[in-house]
Each structure stands twice: as C-alpha cells, then as structure tokens.
Design a protein that fits this description.
This protein has one domain. The protein is 71% helix and 0% strand. The chain contains four helices and no strands. The protein is elongated. The N and C termini lie far apart (108 Å).
C-alpha cells in the first residue's frame, strides 16, 4: 500500500508540475504577444508622426509661397508681365466698414431667410420660357 501511495503522490506532483509549466508558459506567451503589439503600435505611431511632420512642412512651404506671391511688388510685377492692366483703386472707391465684414455679409445674405416675403416672392415668379411647369 505504501508503494501505491508514493506513486499517487508522484503522479499528483507530476500533474501539478505540468500544469504550472503550462500556466507559466501561457503567461510568457501572453507577455511576448503584448510586447509585440506594443512594438506594432509604436511603429505605427512613428509612421503617423513622420506623415504629420511632412504635411506640416508642406503647409509651411505653401504658406511661404503664398505670402511671397502676395507681396505688393510681386503683384505689380505680375501685372506688368501678364499685361493685365490692373490699377490701384482710388480713395473714392474705397469704403471703410466698421465691424466684422464677415458677419455683416452673412447678415446681409440671410436677412430675408425666415420671412414670409421670400416664400411669396418665390411662388409668384413668372414662368421661364421654354420650360414646362
């Protein structure tokens, strides 16, 4: 009986040892997989950072080109080269506007947007010749 009890203990010890090896192996495999995923994410981040830097560089180059082309001397030279015949506006043609011109134009454009006059004016338009209603 003693012999069987020793074999049972050895069998249990062997089974528990195999279970621990498998468990620690799965933890090791999970760790390696997680480090691989971190590496892939880091590489993707590097690629995106490089693309962002390239786009920002191109934006800065384009901004520089636009600013140099908007210089008054360059515009005058282009006017002469292309024979456009453009001249500076006189002081009588310049109107100074107080306030934000964008908001002023938006208000002017949307002035009649929510009134009934626009709807009735749209309905009472005369028919266009050659088009069937």
């Amino acid at each position: 009986m003693n012999k069987a009890s020793n074999h049972a203990f050895v069998n249990q010890l062997l089974v528990y040892t195999l279970v621990m090896i498998c468990f620690s192996g799965s933890i090791g495999l999970g760790t390696v997989w997680l480090r691989h995923q971190i590496s892939l994410t880091a590489n993707a981040t590097k690629v995106l950072d490089a693309r962002i830097a390239d786009v920002e560089r191109r934006i800065n180059e384009t901004t520089t080109v636009i600013e140099t082309e908007q210089d008054p001397t360059v515009l005058k030279r282009r006017n002469v080269e292309l024979r456009l015949g453009l001249v500076q506006p006189s002081q009588a043609q310049i109107v100074q506007i107080a306030g934000d011109p964008v908001m002023r134009l938006a208000a002017k454009r949307n002035r009649g947007l929510f009134t009934d006059g626009v709807v009735s004016a749209a309905i009472s338009l005369p028919p266009v010749a050659g088009l069937a209603p």
